[in-house]
Design goal:
alpha/beta, disordered C terminus
């Protein structure tokens, strides 16, 4: 069985060129089934796991989520990326502690998003979101630095479908130390191109 270091190297290599599909198992059985189908990596799903516990997405306690992530990691030979929500903390120090614990599960990567879960204020302000990303980066570096950090911008999932804001936030997360960037909810060719190219779409688009 590959070591944690082997999985992390393989996961980083997958990001070096081209594209790959990363499906979301919600338990040991689905993780092993997806491995047998030939996928090269897996990613946990916060919503999928929450629903198996009859909980809304975002209501799974940190310890329960960490145990679930570890279970998936240990069930498969594939690299696993953790859908780690907002880092289970409102402040940078708490995010750092949560990310340290997540890295200890053996994940090949993990994502930290900028959604607050508060309908009135759905996103962390940019300065706070950047500080949280820096704290996540620091925690991974102190743990050895080989787990991949994914910076997620949730604009399109929380009712703020502003591609310019999305691109600006992703650039800021990259500068704060994110290795990989993710904007769930974008769908059109123009939106995807704007994110990939890191620019505001032109009026002709």
């Amino acid at each position: 069985m590959p070591t944690i270091a082997d999985k992390r190297r393989a996961f980083r290599k997958l990001h070096e060129a081209g594209c790959f599909v990363i499906p979301n198992p919600w338990d040991i059985g689905s993780a092993r089934y997806l491995q047998r189908l030939g996928f090269k990596a897996l990613a946990t799903t916060s919503a999928g796991f929450a629903f198996t516990r009859a909980l809304p997405d975002g209501d799974v306690p940190r310890d329960m989520m960490l145990a679930h992530i570890r279970e998936i990691v240990e069930a498969t030979d594939l690299p696993v990326n953790a859908d780690f929500g907002e880092g289970f903390a409102p402040n940078p120090a708490g995010v750092a502690e949560s990310v340290r614990l997540c890295a200890e599960t053996g994940v090949a990567g993990l994502s930290v998003e900028d959604a607050t879960g508060d309908g009135d204020h759905p996103l962390f302000d940019l300065d706070s979101a950047v500080q949280r990303m820096r704290s996540a980066r620091s925690a991974i570096d102190k743990a050895g630095g080989d787990a991949l950090l994914v910076g997620r911008c949730e604009c399109f999932l929380v009712g703020r479908p502003d591609i310019a804001e999305t691109v600006a936030r992703l650039k800021a997360y990259s500068n704060a130390g994110a290795d990989c960037l993710y904007a769930p909810g974008i769908r059109t060719r123009e939106e995807i191109a704007a994110v990939v190219e890191g620019r505001r779409p032109s009026r002709s688009m």
